[in-house]
Specification:
- There is one protein chain.
- The chain has about 400 residues and is α/β, with parallel strands linked by helices.
- The chain has 2 domains: about 5-90 and about 315-405, no CATH class; about 130-310, 3-Layer(aba) Sandwich (Rossmann fold), CATH 3.40.50.720.
- It contains 15 helices and 8 strands.
- The chain has helices spanning about 5-30, 40-55, 55-65, 70-110, 125-130, 150-160, 175-180, 190, 210-215, 235-245, 280-295, 305-330, 340-355, 360-365, 370-405, and strands at about 140-145, 165-170, 185, 200, 225-230, 250-255, 270-275, 300-305.
- The structure holds NADP nicotinamide-adenine-dinucleotide phosphate.
- NADP nicotinamide-adenine-dinucleotide phosphate (NAP) binds near residues 146, 149, 170 and 360.
């Protein structure tokens, strides 16, 4: 029971109720579909659509018309979405410009005599031949490359299961690593000379090519298992097959949760994997199984599917979820004394997605073939909702004018 003045109610409800219904209606018009690998965030959006779409348009229109704060809220939503779109386009513009400029410079260099570019990166085969291929231990030696937000989050659980974890990153995370029980290397050569059985790539999607090209493969064991956790899958799969030595095993994965949605354990959270290339030897098969078991034993819902299928299902749902979370974040929504269930959903979505880097969001946009179309669809859905509201306003006012005239 909450006793409050009608004025206070309307002020709070303009954000909690009106924004919730508006977002629910925009998403409904965007025609979201359930997938076999829904994240928690996406599930909550689907729930929101179901919750709000059942209500009549009259109800929604009532919230708009009879609450004096609603128009301001609608404008804020509009500005926030526009701002997010501008941010994405500005990044795109910068990246493409940089590429064009870089390409121009490269062409310029190639014009001169340049033969040594081809000599780079020939792995030392004889050194590789001497490396041991057997892995008798039940515990794995895992080297995390990219020890940012997500790398550290995974390390915590992997260490707790008794595996040996090493890490390397562009920035210095030695203090964090020490606290987590992880051996930190500031030199990637030193890390690789520890001969980890598994390399776990946790870098941002956009830096993958650069990071991959900088790894000294010749210092690793020939049987190394290469795993990634990128939120898109066909892109790293193709890169690995193209750049990694043929003897390396390749496992592409996507833990479909993060530090926020997985903070209370990983039970029932989806973990997607594709055994892209695993050698026939028992030790290799076992090692892959042991790696997967890190997630299975925490209760993850293990889903084996091809990278292409993953991208078909996830790229869309992830991008929509992050877009909704990000544009709502711009509104700085606050909890109110009268939060509805739907509004609580939005608040937790903002919390879930807001902590991820813009790099991550931008990659979901860049590496998803349909992202531009989805952004447009979201925009059109919003426009069409506003049109419905304003058309009604217009027709009511016209009718009133007409009646007064008569
Ligand atoms: P992110 O911003 O996607 O990646 C941050 C990591 O990338 C840091 O380790 C950072 O190293 C490294 N990095 C960025 N630019 C680099 C560059 N130019 N050269 C070398 N390293 C660079 O944030 P994240 O949340 O930690 O995600 C890491 C990976 O996990 C991503 O591929 C993401 O798709 C995937 N993933 C994330 C989540 C999630 O909930 N966050 C869930 C599933 C999968 P420094 O910190 O040393 O600079």
């Amino acid at each position: 029971m909450v006793e409050m003045s009608c004025e206070d109610h309307d002020r709070y409800a303009a954000s909690s109720q009106f924004i919730t219904h508006t977002v629910g209606r925009i998403l409904k018009e965007s025609m979201l579909e359930s997938t076999p690998i829904n994240t928690k965030g996406y599930e909550s959006l689907l729930g929101l659509v179901e919750n709000t779409a059942m209500d009549s348009f009259d109800l929604y229109y009532g919230l708009f018309m009879f609450n004096k704060n609603s128009l301001e809220m609608l404008e804020k939503l509009d500005l926030a979405f526009e701002d997010l779109r501008k941010q994405l386009i500005a990044w795109l513009h910068r990246v493409v410009r940089n590429q064009l400029i870089e390409n121009g410079e490269r062409l310029h260099q190639l014009d001169g005599s340049n033969s040594h570019a081809l000599h780079r990166r020939a792995p030392n085969e004889s050194a590789l031949l001497h490396s041991s291929q057997s892995d008798e231990n039940t515990k794995l030696k895992i080297a995390i490359v990219g020890f940012g937000n997500f790398g550290q989050f995974l390390a915590k659980t992997i260490v707790s299961q008794g595996h040996e974890v090493l890490a390397y990153s562009r920035s210095d995370y030695s203090d964090v690593a020490r606290k987590l029980g992880v051996l930190y290397f500031s030199d990637v050569d030193d890390l690789c000379e520890q001969h980890p059985g598994v390399i776990l790539l946790c870098t941002s999607i956009i830096s993958t090519v650069k990071v991959l090209k900088s790894l000294p493969f010749q210092r690793l064991k020939r049987s190394t298992l290469f795993v990634d956790v990128l939120s898109v899958k066909e892109f790293p799969r193709n890169l690995f097959l193209q750049h990694l030595p043929h003897d390396f095993d390749v496992l592409c994965t996507h833990p479909m949760f993060g530090p926020e949605s997985g903070k209370n354990g990983w039970k029932n959270l989806p973990f997607v994997y594709d055994k892209v290339r695993i050698g026939n030897e028992e030790s290799r098969i076992l090692r892959c199984y042991r790696f997967l078991d890190i997630f299975a034993s925490e209760g993850c819902r293990m889903v084996e599917m091809s990278c292409a299928e993953h991208d078909r299902h996830a790229a869309g749902s992830q991008f929509v979820t992050h877009t909704t979370g990000r544009f709502l974040e711009k509104l700085r929504l606050k909890t109110t004394p009268i939060n509805t269930k739907g509004y609580e959903t939005l608040l937790s979505l903002v919390k879930n997605t807001g902590r991820d880097s813009f790099d991550l969001y931008y990659s979901l946009f860049l590496y998803n073939l349909n992202a531009m179309e989805q952004l447009e669809r979201f925009d059109l859905a919003f426009e069409s909702l506003k049109k419905q509201l304003f058309n009604r306003l217009h027709s009511i006012y016209r009718k009133q004018l007409f009646e007064n005239e008569q």
